[in-house]
User: Fold Glycerol 3-phosphate dehydrogenase (NAD(P)+) from Methanobrevibacter gottschalkii DSM 11977.
Amino acid sequence: MFSNIGVVGAGAMGTAISQTICDNTQKVSLYARREELVDSINTTRFNKDYFPNIRLKDNIIATNDLNDLKDAEIIFLTLPSSTIREVCSQLKYIISQDCVLVNTAKGLEKGSQKRMSEVIMEETGRPACVLSGPNIAVEMVERTFSSASIACENKQYLEKVEKALSTFRFKVSASCDVIGVEYCGVIKNIIAISQGICEGMKINDNARFSVFTKTYNETKDMIEKFGGNRNTVDDYCGFGDIITASTLNVSRNHTLGVLYGQRIVIDEKASGVLFEGKNTIVIMKKLCKKHNIDCATVDFTYDVIINRINPKKAFEIFWDKL
Ligand SMILES: NC(=O)c1ccc[n+]([C@@H]2O[C@H](COP(=O)([O-])OP(=O)(O)OC[C@H]3O[C@@H](n4cnc5c(N)ncnc54)[C@H](O)[C@@H]3O)[C@@H](O)[C@H]2O)c1
Assistant:
């Protein structure tokens, strides 16, 4: 039993992780920036902004003071990838030497194209543990059955995080393939978009799942070229998450693909809805070029979303590469 585990970011994933680990620790310190949300969680036991109908466990204590995490044995970072560097640059002055940082953000750093564990290492000087899987937040908040892959170069850190997460209902697959687990989380966003486009343009199902097969194999090839283990794609972070994000209407990336497949273009500035997946496509296109990788799935999403090529025409180019 741990005494204090921190979670930074009280959004969907932060609440989900808190509800998952709370059986294995005396206290979960859930950091939220807004004092009003902290007060509301601590007094009502509900995160009204995200899950107004699900009561949170009593040992989840919200705080808006990062210093409350100074004795945390583990800290889960449940933040957008764009904020990980900035938050780590603050945390490094607060956390203990033994504290393990766990990244849950599925993205690469814009500009540097670095993985989040690389960003965390640069900022805090310690190897991060990474978590990725078919983790629909609301299901984890409800404490139904879920799973995730975790990876870390440091075996002791990995065992610690495995202990913190594992329960009868939450299954964990631990490995040392940090690169593989992180890239699965990134590439699955591209796959969700490509499958969304196919759905939006109402391509027949035989065709959709034929290209899905190609995509799955391309994911393995890509991860190997990036230095990861191709078999990691068969784990929860790969197969499980790819299927979840590509076939269910719960993913924002999938929705982005469906809209473009229907030739509906969202004005992000006017609507206020940001599609992070667009950045991922641009970053992945650059990375493929850098590593000399020919990936039909990345090209397809780039053609439709960035170059705005007619999806039917782009699909035929994709199909021709099968
Ligand atoms: N939602 C999921 O099912 C899910 C599953 C797996 C992984 N993730 C990953 O978890 C991360 C968070 O996703 P989410 O769905 O919870 O998003 P979200 O928007 O629901 O929550 C993010 C939270 O981070 C807070 N935040 C932003 N910048 C911050 C900062 N500088 N300091 C402190 N808090 C800050 C926001 O206020 C918000 O509450 C993403 O990177 C995503 O890839 C999400």
